[in-house]
């Protein structure tokens, strides 16, 4: 390997690996995590929830189908860095417009290949996610050997930690936009305001496929901004960062709950609902990232295979109704509606006295299985029942 091809991966605990530079050359720092998805790498790297994270792919061969213009889940690649074992030399797909290597370089994403990703993943499973860096080209250390590794490890340790980071504002849409109903609908069956905390492209599409008009708004607005669209429902999306730092979003959601507007949240939106209800959140050791995560819906008993990408989780009691802690039970009772079967982590919340529910995983399935698509139907049912109840209340007044 020539000097121009050399790349180094260094973790904050001093663990390091030598590999081949891939994508852009230079330095990148972030939290290193691993994804177990065997497919869907283009959706993974364009998921805004991966902002400031270096992603290790456990699938050994990545890039086989190149990149195309159909699969991105946002306007750019968001991963801070990319670690693979064996990148494809030549893509093979009629949809391919470029190689993954070229696209990473075009968007300035520093990567490394020819790394023993199995060994690296085993280390992250035991030691937990941590800060790391990829270095190549001019970012390689001046001193060789262990002295150079120590120099790079110090750069890694200077990077901000994920815990305590408020990142949604760094990935949200700069402007409001509308996704109209998709399909044979003469008019929208309702309007949903979706607060973009890092929303994936497919999420408003799944809502629009059910006849809903989706108004996607940047985070940072007020409840008056949301109410101005006269929503039948409000949605909070997935997104990066620590939910404990998202105080403005928690306060905003409490106003939505106070107004009794039906609410549905995904991923970060699940954690925001948990904190709005007065529950705690905590950081998982290595998180859930992949498209093969089993979850049980406790209401039906059905097990679904889900797409997940989260490093934080809600702390709530399993298997029993509980009074939500905020403000002496202001939002009444709730249950944990979905549970992860690998480790019993809370994967969903359902409020019993206000019209709100959420899941930790990704029913929009991009990439991933479609087992959980029924949740969008459940949101539409909630909107319909709330609207009917409001109409009946007015007639009986």
Automatic annotation (TrEMBL):
Signal sequence residues: none
Top-level taxon of origin: Bacteria
Keywords: Amino-acid biosynthesis, Arginine biosynthesis, ATP-binding, Glutamine amidotransferase, Ligase, Nucleotide-binding, Pyrimidine biosynthesis
Stored InterPro entries: Anth_synth/Amidotransfase, CarbamoylP_synth_ssu, CarbamoylP_synth_ssu_N, CarbP_synth_ssu_N_sf, Class_I_gatase-like, CPSase_GATase1, GATASE
PANTHER family, alphabetized: CARBAMOYL-PHOSPHATE SYNTHASE SMALL CHAIN, MULTIFUNCTIONAL TRYPTOPHAN BIOSYNTHESIS PROTEIN-RELATED
Organism: Litorihabitans aurantiacus
Subunit structure: Composed of two chains; the small (or glutamine) chain promotes the hydrolysis of glutamine to ammonia, which is used by the large (or ammonia) chain to synthesize carbamoyl phosphate. Tetramer of heterodimers (alpha,beta)4.
Family statement drawn from the similarity comment of this UniProt entry: Belongs to the CarA family.
Catalytic activities: hydrogencarbonate + L-glutamine + 2 ATP + H2O = carbamoyl phosphate + L-glutamate + 2 ADP + phosphate + 2 H(+); L-glutamine + H2O = L-glutamate + NH4(+)
Catalytic residue list: 267 (nucleophile), 362, 364
Annotated metabolic or biological route of this protein: Pyrimidine metabolism; UMP biosynthesis via de novo pathway; (S)-dihydroorotate from bicarbonate: step 1/3; Amino-acid biosynthesis; L-arginine biosynthesis; carbamoyl phosphate from bicarbonate: step 1/1
NCBIfam families: CPSaseIIsmall, PRK12838.1
GO biological process: 'de novo' pyrimidine nucleobase biosynthetic process; 'de novo' UMP biosynthetic process; glutamine metabolic process; L-arginine biosynthetic process
A UniProt-annotated Pfam family: GATase
Protein name: Carbamoyl phosphate synthase small chain
């Amino acid at each position: 390997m020539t000097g121009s091809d050399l790349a180094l991966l260094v973790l904050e605990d001093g663990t390091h690996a030598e590999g081949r530079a891939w994508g852009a050359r230079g330095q990148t720092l972030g939290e290193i995590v691993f994804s177990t998805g065997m497919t869907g790498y283009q959706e993974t790297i364009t998921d805004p929830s991966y902002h400031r994270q270096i992603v290790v792919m456990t699938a050994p061969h990545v890039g086989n189908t190149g990149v195309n213009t159909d699969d991105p889940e946002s306007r750019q690649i968001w991963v801070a860095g990319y670690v693979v074992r064996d990148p494809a030399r030549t893509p093979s797909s009629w949809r391919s417009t470029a190689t993954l290597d070229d696209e990473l370089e075009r968007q300035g994403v520093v990567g490394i290949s020819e790394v023993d990703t199995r060994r690296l993943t085993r280390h992250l499973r035991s030691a937990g996610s941590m800060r790391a860096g990829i270095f190549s080209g001019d970012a390689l250390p001046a001193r060789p050997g262990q002295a150079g590794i120590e120099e790079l490890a110090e750069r890694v340790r200077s990077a901000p930690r994920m815990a305590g980071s408020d990142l949604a504002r760094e990935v949200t849409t700069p402007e409001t936009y509308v996704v109209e109903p998709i399909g044979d609908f003469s008019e929208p069956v309702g309007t949903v305001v979706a607060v973009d905390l890092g929303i994936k492209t497919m999420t408003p599409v799944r809502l629009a496929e059910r006849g809903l008009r989706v108004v996607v708004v940047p985070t940072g607005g007020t409840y008056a901004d949301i109410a101005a669209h006269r929503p039948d429902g409000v949605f909070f999306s997935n997104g990066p960062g620590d939910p404990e730092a998202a105080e403005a979003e928690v306060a905003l959601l409490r106003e939505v709950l106070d107004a009794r507007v039906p609410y549905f949240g995904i991923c970060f939106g699940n954690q925001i609902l948990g904190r709005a209800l007065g529950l705690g959140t905590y950081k998982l050791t290595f998180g859930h990232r992949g498209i093969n995560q089993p979850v049980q819906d406790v209401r039906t008993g059905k097990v679904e295979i889900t797409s997940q990408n989260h490093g934080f989780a809600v702390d709530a009691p399993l298997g029993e109704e509980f009074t939500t802690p905020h403000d002496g039970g202001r939002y009444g009772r709730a249950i944990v509606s979905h549970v992860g079967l690998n480790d019993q982590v809370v994967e969903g919340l359902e409020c019993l006295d206000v019209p709100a529910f959420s899941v930790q995983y990704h029913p929009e399935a991009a990439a991933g299985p479609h087992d959980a698509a029924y949740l969008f139907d459940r949101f539409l049912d909630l909107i319909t029942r709330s609207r009917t109840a409001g109409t009946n209340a007015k007639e009986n007044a």
